[in-house]
Design goal:
By secondary structure, the chain is an alpha+beta fold. The chain is built from twelve helices and 18 strands.
Amino acid sequence: MLDIQRIRDNPDQIRQAVANKKSPVDIDAVIDLDSRRRDTIQEVERLKNLRNNSSLEISALKKEKKDASALIAEMKSVSEKIKSLDAELATFEAQINEILIRIPNVPHSSVPHGQSEKDNVVHSEWGETPVFDFKPRDHIELGTALDIIDFPRGAKIAGAGFPVLKGMGALLERALINFFLDTHTRKNGYTEIFPPFLANRASHFGTGQLPKSEEQMYYINEDELFCIPTAEVPVTNLHRDEVLDSGILPVKYCAYSACFRREAGSYGKDTKGYLRVHQFNKVELVKYTTPEKSYEEHELLRKDAEGILQALGLKYRVLILCDADLSFAAAKCYDLEAWAPGEGKFLEVSSCSNFEDFQARRANIRFRPQGGEKPRFVHTLNGSGLATARILVSILETYQTAQGTVRVPEVLQPYMHGIKEIVPR
């Protein structure tokens, strides 16, 4: 959430940022409401001062045995006016807050301007494009032939978008999760968290999923809980309503979770196979840091995610998202996309975002600077490190052989009991 003072001081910048993010929120409305609210506060203060001074005058008149009835009646009217204005203030506050929670974060100055995802900028690429002396299969053909992915039975159980992994497919999925967690905890210095896979409304509000994206989420009405779309939600909210000591920053967490997304409105997007599913696994990276260090930490976060792709030997590229493609809460974001030969395209496998103090304001997460300064809001960052579904696609399609088998990346072999190749059963 943006500070109302920032909107007052930079109305043109905020209007432009909102327009660039294709948001329909009315900045002029919140500025007008805020002006009326401040005028009302001034009037309430004036009337309260008048009432306080008049109370002294009434007391003096009574001591002198003089008639104070007219002044008492006037102050009764003033008190009623104050009560009425306080009610107006409450209405203004509610109206302002209702708009504020829908204003997106302001893109960082380094974010490119664009009209859609087509205007995202390639930051870098890594690895060689796999070359085959045969026509590469896609992951659906491979998964079916190897009997490691079962789309029909998953659909029978829960509907489309809930595939079943079996045998070597399930083992490969588990190997990926364990490899991700071990790399980030043992090599990259993150503390592992195993969070709840359900979270309340306050938690989803804190990270910015609510109210904007409620239609994309699975909701359990009886318990007022949402299935989490990412471990970002519970992990970021670990320190909601807390003040951290600056000496412990940056705090670095990683967490595995299943992720649940309804993908409402995804009609027309590529939904085949494992490319867009309603349930998938992901290891999430979350950081809390000081404002002065947040963009340095952002670059390190991206490199930690890239390190996983490099260890797996997958060709990938890094995109800087343009302002029109940024998420609601992000100030800057890198997308990491792995090459999938069978699909003949790059697939997003990680988004590494800096939210600056946007989430921290919503979740009230602050830190106490050294030197006795008053608490300030932390900057929060997160990134996928990584999501498994499209990584699985990229691995199957990259490491396939002419015989229809799939070689296991060397770094995953210890997690797969030494198995070097997935073969038909």
